[in-house]
From TrEMBL:
The chain crosses the membrane at residues 28-49. This is Flp pilus assembly protein, pilin Flp. Keywords: Membrane, Transmembrane, Transmembrane helix. It comes from Paenibacillus pasadenensis.
């Protein structure tokens, strides 16, 4: 009984350890972070240059793309 429990606990510990050391998807999260920073910088630059012409149209397009992203 105790041996079976020990084996079961060991298997669960190994499973948890492999889950925590799994790095799949980490790079995608980093790319999303970089893209978010780039979008924030673009919006900040557009807001500095005012609300005229191309800047406002580009700002509307970027905001539309951001609204379409569902996290």
């Amino acid at each position: 009984m105790i041996r079976t429990l020990g084996i079961h606990l060991y298997a669960k510990a190994q499973q948890a350890r492999s889950y925590l050391s799994n790095q799949r998807g980490a790079q995608a999260i980093e790319y999303i972070g970089i893209a978010a920073v780039a979008v924030v910088l673009i919006i900040a630059l557009l807001s500095m240059f005012g609300d005229g012409g191309i800047a406002s149209k580009l700002k509307e397009k970027i905001e539309g793309f951001i609204d379409k992203i569902k996290i």
